[in-house]
Amino acid sequence: MSQSVPFFNKYLPEFIYGGMDGSVTTFAVVAGATGANFNPNVIIILGLANLLADGLSMSIGSYLSSKAEVNNYQKQKKQEYWSIENMPEEETDEIRKIYQEKGFKGEMLEEIVKVITSSKALWVEEMMKDELKMLESSKTPINKALATYFSFIAVGLIPLLVYFIDLFLPDTKFPLFLISSVLTFCAFIFIGYLKAYLNHLSKIKGVAETLFLGGIAAFVSYMAGTVLESLISKF
Questions:
Q1: Are 193 and 207 contacting, i.e. CB atoms less than 8 angstroms apart?
Q2: pLDDT score recorded for residue 150
Q3: CA distances from 57 to 43, 80, 105 (A)
């Protein structure tokens, strides 16, 4: 079943997470550097350095977190196998209680218990799901990390696009920060829409929330750059 799910849809949460963080942090660098009146070439250097370093850090964090979840799941699963092999009566009672709480009783309850306890794999799966409330993820840690890193880089490059164009076409005289702002806010709209789609929320609310949070981050960075540049220039 999981193999039939397209890669993008399967890893959509990671794409949203990475893309949002990538666009916000990169645009924050652009806004702060613009507020400090940095040269466009310096903005490219700072933006790329931030993009590559933060993206790698974020993907490593995603990998380690996911790997820890997988290891914990496997540890608990091994413990459940040990329990049903060494304490079958107690574990059988656990299954019986689980299905009693679901409303089963009498002969039907005993038949369910008999079927489940006849297979160790099924027995352990039921214990993991209903007793420990743990589900095995079909996503591998490395794929989650790669999806996060790819989206961080892909969406995070958007605020820098116009600066790259200006680098190769310096005579065009683009209003760089304005165009970067428009492109970034388009990225925010896209990410906000995907987030609303994923969580089954209002598309307008999802977009508005993303624009608001991204706008705050950009404003704070711009003002910080402006204030710091003003203070430093006095020395």
A1: yes
A2: 93
A3: 21, 35, 52
